[in-house]
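Protein record

Derive tokens from sequence
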Amino acid sequence: MSKRILEKISSTESLHTAWKNLDKHNKSSHGLSKETIEDFAKNIDERISSISASLLKGTYFLSQNRGVLIPKTNGGFRPLQIPEISDRLVLKSIAIELEEIFKPIISKSDGYSFAYQQKLGIKDAILQITEHYKNGYIYSLEADLINFFGTVNKDELLNNFILPNLPDDSINKLLTRALNQKIGGIEKFDDEQKSYFENIDKGIPQGNPLSPLFSNIYLAPFDAYLIEKDYKLVRYADDFVILCKTKEDCIQAYADCCEILKSLKLEIHSLEEGKKTKILKIEEDLLTFLSVTFNGKEIYPSIENFERIKSRIREICNGKIKHSILTLLKKNVNLQDGWISAFIFTDLNRYSEELDFFIDRQLFLALRKYDWKFSDKTLGKLPKKYSQPNESRNCLSESQRLNSGIPFSKKLIEQKRTIA
């Protein structure tokens, strides 16, 4: 007799696997109780044993989530719900098991859907776009779903898409609770910020380990409809592009998208607005998708993407939080390494020189606040094209940069490409 789902997700083996696969890059990440990943890891075996026993007895209860606001690139905020570490572990164990159960459904979108899939990511989505372009699909319809995670009806998701496809009902109540966790900690926000949490309980909670999987399951009919019509769809969560050979084909693709989305009670921005939903001739208008620009020949991080990395460097070096010199340097190393690693498949060299001079300038300004002594003879100078009007061009020299421990971007790019 095969094990019920509850027994599978509750085993210590499954929970250890979930812990291994949980995103732990931010050791200080925490839920409402302020228990961090680092705290939880200190007695991981004991905690997993306790959670396993509670799940099997039916005495495990999901806690409130912590409300968080993440700034959006186009202004405003995206509300997230951050679970307790123990809840993340349980939900991740469930997600891993459900991925296997729903594999026959999700696999039908292979080659079309690239988010939240094992061994797939932004690079694969972008390279698929370039492949379609090489085959003559030189126009694109670019769109994203309006408030997708907040719009999906949780009851319909569970009752029509999830629960009927499970082999047993042993985790039905747990899944229902997982999509209806209360949210706490929003009293710290001002009235305008609190407005972003209005009706947040209506959709799929962003920040929940189950949400990525559920989004792909819910959008499987959307994928299937467009695949059946032989559209060159490239979808990444609720963002997608459709590559076509003519503008007219893109217009028809837009109409077909609206038709299938209406049946799912979802919408995209109208084509008439011409902002978030638009038709482009790639070599003339440039396609930017997932923060990567494609001009028909080259792929590279978008201008907005590059400006964001500069903004984050500025915040580390000269923001409100004053770091120790060692922490400041380490954070810059990690940020630079992470950005280059994420976009190593693109043409990063077009930004490498400017990035290095920007780092040198921001470090100079930061170290000066620590009363670091510089002499004119030892300082470097920004090229005029990277300097600001009415500001000095002083920055770290090449030797000072080498001593900082932050590698030069071009050299780091070469090293990572060699490894890749």
DSSP finds 20 helices and twelve strands in the chain. The first strand starts at residue 65 and ends at 71. The CA atoms of residues 62 and 87 lie 6 Å apart.
